[in-house]
Amino acid sequence: VQLQESGPGLVKPSQTLSLTCTVSGGSLTSNLYYWTWIRQPPGKELEWMGAIASSGSYYRPSLKSRISISKDTSKNQFTLQLNSVTPEDTAVYYCTRYRSLAETDMDYRGKGTLVTVSS
Question: Counting beta carbons within 10 angstroms of the beta carbon of residue 27, is it exposed (0 to 12), middle (13 to 18) or buried (19 or more)?
């Protein structure tokens, strides 16, 4: 399974961050997996942001008012949208596949993409 993130590397404060993950070698229609976004701000630990699965969407409580994850099964892609960004949202963003909602249950990860929030 391969995952590849794409999207702008620079977003202005108060705008919406939008990233797409293209999946190859695995199907988003499978009911076995949780397609998940995680991020790592500079100097900080990895943070689980949210996931989408056949059972629904799941979000980190602290991000729930700003985050949305959707999927396009015809393109085998899933997308992250994060609204009203601030410089604190600057991070390397990874799309991943998890086998459950447990934060340690990741089995595949993209290479990551740096998104900087700055005017």
Answer: exposed
pLDDT of residue 102: 86
- Exposed (0-12), middle (13-18) or buried (19+): which is 15, by Cβ within 10 Å? middle
What would the mean pLDDT of 54-75 be, rounded to a whole number? 96
Q: Burial of 11 by CB count in 10 Å (0-12 exposed, 13-18 middle, 19+ buried)?
A: buried
Helix, strand or coil for residue 78?
A: strand
Q: Which two tokens stand for residue 62?
A: 């602290």
Query: Predicted confidence band at 37 (pLDDT cuts at 50, 70, 90)?
Result: very high
Q: Among residues 93, 84, 78, which one has the least CA distance to residue 46?
A: 93
CA atoms of 105 and 32, how far apart (whole Å):
12
Distance CA 117, CA 8 (A): 10
Q: What pLDDT score does 3 carry?
A: 98
Nearest in space to 97 (alpha carbons), one of 22, 40, 12? 22
- The radius of gyration of the chain from alpha carbons, rounded to an integer in Å, stands at 13
